[in-house]
Specification:
Order of helices and strands: HHHEEHHEEEEHHHEEHHEHHEEHH
Number of helices: 14
Strand content: 5-15%
Helix content: 40-55%
Number of strands: 11
Structural class: alpha+beta
């Protein structure tokens, strides 16, 4: 039997002739059951097979703090990686009703700097852990290489290396939502949280569905403000806000407008010009206002209406008869259903 660590840790042994030659050398030294003449006459020989194999991939970080932060996100997000669909993706083998092996992902405390994430499949597993201060290691291992569709003869080492490398890549693919740049890092939550000014005054945060806030945002992104040099006074902004709200002055005062503008100022989205009564909407403030308006009016509101009170006749309408916007909304609804299913959430019937 060939020691598994010799296969897993030494790239030079990927040369099959050299591997087999060295293996036969040690077999001849440690298993002298046949003489050279007997081997030539009877054709008796030993063959080399895999017993246990493992392959590792190291992701190297520059700072230890970044490793810890990333590992915490992995521990939190990998709770669903043990689902049959994910295991099928990682190991490239279907999980059918006939499957009888262990099928789960677990966290283990092995006295390492961080817990070990271990995803089991058949006679093996793939594990991920922090090693040597700044390494994030992903490591598949198995006691039976036939689980990966590879025969046990060591001559199949290149094929086995390829399969195990694919498992590592697929494991990373299953974590793609964590590795992506555009993930939730708390900015939306911070916008919704109250802001405490240096003098101790507490200003409420921004809400995605607040009518007064959305009306102010409508007025802020008007082209009229851009034509005026991107600056305005509360008096300039007051009429379009009333128009967006559909309210008379008696129900929404100029003081209320200043209060709503203070929320945007507290978040750094709006600034007051020095020694002036004029305001300027920051570049990121313009983008955030447009984002909030688009999300509410073009995403949340239409999708909510479609879910809570859909038109019954829409289901009977052929897709090619629908307008482009309706087709896109339906596609978005279908993709949201798929997304909820992928992250382990089920929509109510």
């Amino acid at each position: 039997m060939l020691p598994s660590r010799a296969v897993a840790t030494t790239r030079r042994l990927s040369d099959r002739p050299r591997l087999i030659a060295r293996g036969q050398k040690w077999l001849a030294a440690f298993t002298p059951f046949f003489s050279s003449q007997e081997r030539r006459q009877a054709g008796g020989q030993h063959r080399l097979f895999f017993s246990q194999v493992e392959l590792c991939d190291n992701l190297i970080f520059f700072r230890r703090a970044a490793v810890d932060q990333f590992a915490e996100r992995l521990l939190d997000m990998n709770r669903t990686i043990g689902q049959p669909k994910k295991i099928t993706l990682i190991f490239g083998r279907k999980v059918t009703r006939q499957y009888k092996g262990k099928l789960q992902t677990e966290l283990e405390d092995l006295d390492l700097p961080n817990p070990v994430i271990r995803s089991h499949y058949a006679h093996g597993f793939a594990k991920q852990y922090v090693r040597d201060d700044r390494l994030l290691r992903t490591e598949p291992a198995t006691h039976d290489v036939t689980d990966y569709g590879v025969k046990k003869n060591v001559e199949n080492l290149p094929q086995l290396r390829q399969r195990m490398s694919e498992i590592i890549d697929h494991y990373h693919d299953a974590q793609q939502d964590i590795l992506e740049t555009f993930i939730d890092r708390g900015q939306l939550q911070k916008l919704a949280e109250p802001t405490t000014l240096t003098k101790g005054k507490r200003i409420p945060g921004l809400k995605l569905d607040h009518p007064r806030q959305l009306a102010v945002m409508h007025a802020l992104v008007r082209y009229a403000n851009i034509a005026a040099g991107s600056t305005f006074t509360t008096a300039d902004l007051y009429p379009p806000v009333l128009d967006a709200l559909g309210l008379p002055q008696s129900q929404y005062s100029l003081a209320s407008l200043r209060y709503d503008l203070s929320k945007l100022r507290a978040k750094g989205l709006l600034e007051k010009l020095p020694h002036s009564r004029r305001y300027r909407l920051a570049h990121k403030g313009y983008s955030i206002c447009v984002l909030f308006l688009k999300l509410f009016e073009r995403i949340y509101a239409p999708l909510t209406a479609g879910l809570l009170k859909p038109f019954s006749g829409d289901r009977n309408l052929a897709e090619d008869k629908r307008c482009q916007l309706d087709r896109l909304y339906q596609r978005l609804t279908d993709d949201l259903d798929a997304l909820l299913s992928a992250v382990g959430l089920k929509t109510a019937a």
